[in-house]
Amino acid sequence: MIEIENVRKSFGSLEVLKGIDLTVNKGEVLTIIGGSGSGKSTLLTCINGLEPINSGRIVVDGTEVHAKSTDLNKLRRKLGIVFQQWNAFPHLTVLENVMLAPRKVLGLSKAEAEAIAVKQLTHVGLADKLGVYPSRLSGGQQQRMAIARALAMSPDYMLFDEVTSALDPQLVGEVLDTLRMLASEGMTMICVTHEMKFAREVSDRVAFFSKGVMAEIGVPQQIFEAPRNPETAAFVKLTQA
Amino acid sequence: MFETALTSSDLLFLAQGAGMTLIVTAIAVILGTILGVVFGIFRFQVGPWWAAPVTFVLDIFRSIPLLIQLVLVNAFLGMVLRISLSGFTVACMVLTLYTSAYCAEIVRGAVEAVPNTTRRAARSLGLTWRQDMSYIVLPLATRVALPSWIGLALGVMKDSALVYIVQVTELLKSTQILITRLQEPLFLLLICGAFYFIISFPIARFGGYLEKRWSND
Questions:
Q1: Over the stretch A80-100, which tens digit does the pLDDT of each residue have?
Q2: Domain boundaries, chain B
Q3: Among B120, B125, B134, the residue to mutate for chain A (most A Cβ within 10 A)
Q4: ipTM of this model?
Q5: What CA–CA distance (Å, rounded) separates A170 from A120?
Q6: pLDDT digits over A147-169, tens only?
Q7: For the whole model, what pTM was predicted?
Q8: Residues A89 and B131 sit within 8 Å (Cβ to Cβ)
Q9: B114 at the A interface (CB within 8 A)?
Q10: What residue spans of B51-115 are helical by DSSP H?
Q11: Among the CATH numbers 3.30.70.270, 1.10.3720.10, 3.30.930.10, 2.60.40.1930, which is that of B8-215?
């Protein structure tokens, strides 16, 4: 369970998160929608401790992320994250990209790490690209590789930060299909996305962020068909036009 | 010009000089690179303010002509500190620091060239700072730094000619000794140049080979 309590976060004088309260349960798929600059991506990077927070707290399975005593490297094994820019390690092959963390962080043997990597890459449909360098892959393939890389650590939670935003339109589908597959397998996921159709289809709950505040949260049907907050209504109307 | 008094033992003498050039260069480049990597990462990691003292010292080694450094360090060690070191040791020390000063700049620039987002992805997988450095940052930075580093190594090899000033008989000094005896400066300098070329060429080619291999990624 991820518990977010009254989290505030500023970049300099700009407050990007203005007191967020949110709980994500095991097995749940939560999508976060909202305009750019609403703080939704920042929240994800705070959850796995890549960014410090100014006040409040984030607790993952009983561990407070920003407590001084927390071993962030250990905590991050539970939290897979995939970014908008897929960030392949360009000097490693696809297989090596996925094997690196299981070997070095989990301390698995080469054979064990390779077995896991092959399994995850097959899972995302890249079984035929193992020995290829990332520069030879399309954006969609690189993004699926990044997903496999995160999954290879057997995380309990997956955070997706606008993973289709930097892709050519014809490549979006293959990545969303991968996310759908994970959701159907019961992975706990938080997806920041601009893909409304996707959000509506796979989410257990949808949260709408606006100017650093969570303006509304609810089941997809309610958010998309009967939004209570006028800003949500305006946003939904605009994105569905 | 093609009638020469050069004997095979003279050629051997030149080859010994070339050997000395090679040894001094190898020591300076290997130790200087290790130090340069440490200084370069340190400067990148702590930021310009805290790195200022190190930067200042390195700037001194980069901006004062090598010849002057050799004379001053030799005099300082011998006359002020009263430590008697061989010319060879002093030459290696100075040339090492000189190399490290340039290498630190190359390393800092190359590490900065690794995208922050890539490092973020590495850290988000649970890699520690050290692991991120060893498996992601340094391999990528090496590819960026290689052409400049090869240039530095070749430069140091040629600059090592200046260590004659602390009584080290390297390639150029051996040539000068022969010139004094045989009075055939052009011919001897031609041979000396050929020796330098024979040392440099494989290094340059090896660099080119690595560059080509890595660009296939």
A1: 999 988 789 999 999 999 999
A2: 8-215
A3: B125
A4: 0.84
A5: 23
A6: 999 999 999 999 999 988 888 88
A7: 0.82
A8: no
A9: no
A10: 52-63, 66-75, 87-112
A11: 1.10.3720.10
